[in-house]
Amino acid sequence: MNQWTTADDHKRVLMRRRIDFMLRLLFLLCTSIGIVALAVLIVSIVVDGFRYIRPELFLNYPSRRAAQAGMKSAIVGSIYMLLMMAPISFVFGVGAAIYLEEYAKKNRATRFIQLNISTLAGVPSIVYGILGLTIFVRFFALERSLISGTLTMTLLVLPVIIVSAQEAIKAVPKIRRDASFALGADKWQTVSRAVLPSAMPGILTGVILAMSRAIGETAPLVMIGALTYISFLPSSLKDSFSVMPIQIFNWISRPQEEFHSLAAAGIMVLLALLLLMNFSAILLRNKFQKHI
Amino acid sequence: MEALIEINELNLYYGEVRALRNVTLGIPERSITAFIGPSGCGKSTLLRTLNRMNDMIPGTRIDGSIKIAGTDIYSNQVDVETLRKRVGMVFQQPNPFPKSIYDNVAYGPRLHGIRDRKKLDEIVEASLRSAVLWNEVQHHLKRSAFGLSGGQQQRLCIARALAVEPDILLMDEATSALDPISTLKIEELTQELKDRYTIVMVTHNMQQAARVSQRTAFFLNGELIECAETQKLFANPSNPRTEDYISGRFG
């Protein structure tokens, strides 16, 4: 049996290996495009804006003179918005997800709601701006205030949070629910004690990623009228406010070169915050997974 | 024979499919009754009617009656939560919660309102002892249940079921995902439990039914073909279809 492999077999294998190798290169190229783009972006921003990363950027209010301009009110505005948006959207988003996954009957009405939520997750953010303008600013007469902005952004992130929380809840194995029911648990006991603890890492990841998206959103806040020149910190919900992307947008649209560099510095701060949030998402996920 | 569980003329439908046909069966107290039969014969379905786990499958309908200690468990005087507290269940796949060993066993008692730490400690120890797991885990009750072997996890699930002090324990192919040694341990455990609990087990393994049970019921296509003392059913079945099955001619 010295002929149990033939030259033909060998040739075919070599050919397949060559294809394998070329595809590997192709996939590597696909990956690099994204990474290279990000690297170029970061390098050009850092080159541009690094000299404006200085205490004044964080401590000063906006100014007509680039040398004195800072984004204190915008940073604080973004953080206030984040701190209010996170709990509100968590409660409503996870509540809706629990209802849809655990309580709602799987009938036509539920499927219709589901379809709408998935669609809402893809609606352009400017549309939410118009919605917020109509409902919060005008109808509820909340004016162009921090609370209007927060609620508008909450609407924007809710569909994303609902969908990701649903996925996390769906991923909890049925046998774990059965174990709980078989011990005499009712629905809420099962959801709160057996399902949610398992789903929490996924839910939190979804919430934080949605928050990162909201922190970088500009269009809806332009629509409801976040201001760019705010020389005070909001002290009540009805105060006017600014946020980082709005401030950056404003700086970029000015003719003076120095403001473009300031905008680059602002982008660096924003990116750093996003990185921090994504990092905390990973930390939270790991912390919860340890219990499993 | 006084039966603790009396199943009378029970029919069960999943939508249009009739999964159980006119099943009438008595299950005696403090002993082991085994349900055997080929896949899809309705034995697991019947087991799940005893703690009403089938209620959760949409489109399930039953007629006929099931009485436990004289009470119709499908009447609206019976809360399904209370029923399931009295009728515990162990599943085919070990399904501990992603919690500590202690919290797994304490899950049921906590559901039913026991908060007192000392009382919970006692229940956890007693249940783990009953499930012959105490000696292996007593020093690391705080560790995750997922660190246990498959067989230990299944005994933990038994301890968890025992912690709510049921009268009846349903075992749905509880050893089919386990290795032979773990299976043997669970079988030995059932022998200790049968003096205190009424055990109903579904098994694919006829030798297991013969080894551990006092009575065996044979099902085919949703019908109860024969139910008798285990020794008699295996040695001298009265129905030819039972004989065909246990002698390996089909199934």
Automatic annotation (TrEMBL), chain B:
Claim: Transport is one of the keywords in the record: yes
GO biological process: phosphate ion transmembrane transport
GO cellular component: plasma membrane
GO molecular function per UniProt: ATP binding; ATP hydrolysis activity; phosphate transmembrane transporter activity
InterPro entries assigned to the protein according to its UniProt record, in alphabetical order: AAA+_ATPase, ABC_transporter-like_ATP-bd, ABC_transporter-like_CS, P-loop_NTPase, PstB-like
ABC transporter domain residues: 5-246
Topology relative to the membrane: Peripheral membrane protein
Subcellular location: Cell inner membrane
Keywords: ATP-binding, Cell membrane, Membrane, Nucleotide-binding, Phosphate transport, Translocase, Transport
Functional description taken from the UniProt entry: Part of the ABC transporter complex PstSACB involved in phosphate import. Responsible for energy coupling to the transport system.
Protein name, as recorded: Phosphate ABC transporter ATP-binding protein
Organism name: Cohnella luojiensis
Gene symbol of the encoding locus: pstB
